[in-house]
């Protein structure tokens, strides 16, 4: 290691320590987590894609392990095992990310984080995290982006269509292309594939199939055939409803104007009204914390591609005009706690800052 | 130094490789005893033959330890991230043709496309409490393919051979494997998804982008490529 690089590493650690001290002053308890994490938990949560992003290693006694790709999962697990609410945690340390496509992206870097488990006032907890980050990052002149995955989730849940279609759409909220394909199909905008038509028109399709192999039973196969038949008989999602979703996803404006637009859309789409109310409450809480909400960007489709576990408020801080990853990011992740807690969810919101980047940009406050 | 040309050390692929070069006036031959992994290149000066396992040739090319190598496109793309930046494909050799495909049991009458596979995977996970397993040795290629197409709720399980048997043996629900005629798949009651073609592969001659060439080697390389009609 060159002396210059060693200096940078030491300076990054010092920057991370300053951020942790700042978060402790805000009421967080400093915690640490193991670098080697059980692979099963992460695979179960993120699916096979995590293998493209995390380093996997084999332990002859403990099985497959992963070098922690983030702190959120171990912090949630620690909190669920022993924590009492409300709780605030802070941490700093290396995370490890495989970079298969871009050799210029770091495969090992330090994150400093702040996580709040406090269900008393969700809007206040979200504003607390965002305002804390905005203050720490204020000297860097970053652009903040915000969004809310809960709006789209609520809009999908409110569609006048079958539960199965809604579940399929909800499952792919975080894969916009696939979401769009499914929506087009359910809206009757795509032709039904020939093989599907043949299956639907075949009174006894299993009769001339090959022998049944493997774990997937005949009941499961025929169950899905029945579901496909039901789906073919169900009316398509109405064009107005698809337009409503498009209007919602197209909202991108300064937060107060975005809120107005969303209130307008909620007139046609009452299912999103509670989510719009939550956004309004959040903006009030942000303003109360001194955030200039008139100048805050809000983008309804923000956070759909890379933040699979966020399911409500999402935010990121970006160095405009620099080819850098987000300097900070975070959001609400109640769904993650539900998955990890096997049904027992905890309201949770938090985020991480990359001290290596804040330092390169001049240093956080 | 000499220019190092790596070719697969075993089986049909080596024989076909020798044939392809011979048709272009370059003779590849083993030297020494039959089981010895050394060889000679006749017809051009300054080129050495290196006999390697086809699976190791991508790595040797990327490391710059050989200048030229013949191996399957599937192996290069699976083994080397950002393969185009590390090797250059000079010519498809017209043999070793095989498709990497996703296949499921024939009995899955409800599954014909990746879209079906994705939906079936969601139901499978709900019913069995674990993700639908796809057996393969092409982890990177298959993962990238399925990610780009939005398939979720699956898990890859490693299978280095007899992959078609994993479904019957209950170690996987579906497979992603190389097939040339599809016969082994059919014999094992598996069908290829209609949009399940991950990659069309053939034996390909690659040039390393990392191997250093002294001036004399550069001349030998140019002469070889000229002779092969690739200059």
Number of helices of chain A: 15
Helix-strand makeup class of chain B: alpha/beta
Extended strand count of chain B: 12
Choose one word for the global shape of chain A.
Answer: globular
Q: What count of structural domains of chain B?
A: 2
- Count of all domains of chain A: 2
Spatial gap, N to C terminus of chain B: 21 Å
Strand order, main sheet of chain A: write it out.
1-5-6-12-11-10-7-9-8
Low-confidence region ranges of chain B: none
Beta percentage of chain A is 15-25%
Name given to the CATH architecture of the largest domain in chain B: 3-Layer(aba) Sandwich
- The first-level CATH class of the largest domain in chain A is given as Alpha Beta
Pathway (chain B): Amino-acid biosynthesis; L-histidine biosynthesis; L-histidine from 5-phospho-alpha-D-ribose 1-diphosphate: step 1/9
Enzyme class (chain B): transferase
Protein name (chain B): ATP phosphoribosyltransferase
Pfam families (chain B): HisG (PF01634)
Attribute tags:
heterodimer; A: 365 residues; alpha+beta; BirA Bifunctional Protein, domain 2; nine-stranded mixed beta sheet; three-stranded antiparallel beta sheet; 15 helices; 12 strands; 17% strand; globular; B: 231 residues; alpha/beta; D-Maltodextrin-Binding Protein, domain 2; seven-stranded mixed beta sheet
């Amino acid at each position: 290691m060159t002396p210059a690089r060693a200096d940078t590493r030491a300076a990054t650690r010092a920057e991370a320590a300053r951020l942790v001290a700042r978060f402790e002053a805000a009421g967080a308890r400093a915690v640490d987590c193991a670098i080697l994490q059980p692979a099963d938990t992460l695979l179960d949560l993120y699916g096979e894609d995590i293998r493209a992003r995390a380093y996997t290693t084999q332990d002859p006694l403990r099985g497959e392990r992963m070098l922690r790709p983030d702190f959120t999962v171990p912090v949630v697990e620690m909190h669920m095992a022993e924590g009492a609410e409300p709780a605030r945690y802070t941490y700093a340390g290396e995370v490890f990310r495989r970079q298969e496509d871009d050799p210029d992206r770091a495969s090992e870097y330090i994150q400093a984080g702040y996580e709040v488990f406090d269900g008393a006032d969700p809007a206040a907890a979200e504003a607390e995290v965002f305002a804390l980050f905005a203050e720490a990052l204020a000297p860097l002149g970053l652009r903040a982006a915000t969004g809310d995955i809960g709006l789209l989730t609520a809009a999908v849940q409110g569609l006048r269509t079958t539960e199965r279609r809604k579940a399929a759409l909800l499952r792919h909220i975080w894969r916009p292309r696939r979401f769009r394909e499914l929506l087009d199909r359910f809206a009757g905008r795509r032709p039904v594939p020939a093989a599907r038509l043949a299956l639907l028109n075949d009174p006894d399709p299993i009769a001339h199939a090959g022998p049944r192999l493997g774990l997937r039973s005949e009941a499961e196969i025929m169950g899905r055939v029945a579901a496909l038949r039901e789906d073919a008989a169900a009316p398509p999602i109405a064009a107005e409803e698809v337009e409503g979703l498009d209007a919602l996803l197209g909202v991108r404006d300064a937060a107060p104007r975005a809120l107005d637009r969303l209130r307008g859309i909620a007139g046609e789409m009452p299912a999103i009204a509670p989510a719009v109310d939550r956004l309004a409450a959040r903006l009030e809480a942000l303003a109360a914390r001194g955030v200039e909400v008139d100048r805050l960007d809000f983008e309804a489709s923000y956070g759909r591609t890379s933040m699979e576990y966020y399911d409500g408020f999402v935010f990121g801080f970006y160095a405009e005009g620099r080819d850098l990853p987000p300097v900070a990011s975070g959001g609400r992740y109640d769904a993650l706690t539900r998955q990890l807690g096997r049904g027992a969810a905890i309201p949770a919101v938090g985020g991480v800052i990359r001290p290596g980047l804040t330092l390169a940009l001049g240093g956080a406050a | 130094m000499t220019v190092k040309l790596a070719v697969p050390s075993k089986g049909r692929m080596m024989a076909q490789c020798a044939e392809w070069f011979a048709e272009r006036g370059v003779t590849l031959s083993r030297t020494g005893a039959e089981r010895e992994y050394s060889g000679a290149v006749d017809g051009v000066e300054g080129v050495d033959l290196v006999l390697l396992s086809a699976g190791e040739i991508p790595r040797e090319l990327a490391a710059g330890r050989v200048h030229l190598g013949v191996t399957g496109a599937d192996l290069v793309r699976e083994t080397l991230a950002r393969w185009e930046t590390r090797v250059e494909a000079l010519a498809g050799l017209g043999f070793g043709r095989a498709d990497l495909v996703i296949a499921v049991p024939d009995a899955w009458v409800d599954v014909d496309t990746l879209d079906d596979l994705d939906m079936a995977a969601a139901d499978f996970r709900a019913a069995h409490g674990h993700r639908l397993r796809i057996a393969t040795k092409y982890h990177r290629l298959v993962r990238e393919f399925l990610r780009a197409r939005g398939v979720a709720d699956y898990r890859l399980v490693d299978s280095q051979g007899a992959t078609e048997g994993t479904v019957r043996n209950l170690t996987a629900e579906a497979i992603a494997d190389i097939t040339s005629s599809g016969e082994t798949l059919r014999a094992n009651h598996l069908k290829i998804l209609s949009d399940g073609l991950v990659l069309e592969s053939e034996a390909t001659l690659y040039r390393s982008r990392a191997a250093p060439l002294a001036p004399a080697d550069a001349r030998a390389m140019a002469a070889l490529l000229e002779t092969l009609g690739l200059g």
